[in-house]
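Below is one such record:
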Amino acid sequence: MPKNQEGRRGSYAKGIAKREEILTRALEVIAREGYRGASVKELAAAVGLSQAGLLHYFDSKEELFTEILRKRDEIDMAAFGGVEAVSTDVEAVRDGYLQVIRHNSQVPGVVELFSRLSVEAADPRHPAHRFFLDRNRALRGVFADVVRQSQSAGRLTDAIDPDTLARILQAVADGLQVQWMLEPDVDMAAIVEALFRGLSTTEGDSDE
């Protein structure tokens, strides 16, 4: 391989590694300092860069924040063993979802970033627009598949079709995050668990 090609590949690999470091450290800063304390200046300082140096790796502050949320999802998924670990069992999916919600209650800055960016991303021109569309569709797809199989097995009510129920589950979780930011004593996980319990047709399953 020509030396100049090796150099380009090496430089590219270093750039990818630095970008990942920035996202990981930025996520830590937001979790620790909160959304308001996570200015570009603060995030740049955390990785030893100037603001201009930080934005060399991202097109804008909005893209940086979008990629931070993508990194958060990547970390959450890894905690469950990857995509292949997503279960079709409603209790397993419920428990995993509740685990993520409980974790979110420990990182209010990340929740605020998610909620604020999701509203701004309603603008099709926003860098996070595609991220939220794809993320929401994927999440609802997982829920709908689980609901469909659980309804067929008689474990969940069939009074609501799977796609609608999947959207309801997502809407409840997203809406609860906003309520929780206003009222920190709201127990998001307990409310979502109660919803699953209300949808179950098998007595005692929600307490397993």
About this structure: The chain is about 70% helix and 0% strand. The chain has two domains: 1-57, 60-207. The domain at 1-57 is CATH 1.10.10.60 (Arc Repressor Mutant, subunit A).
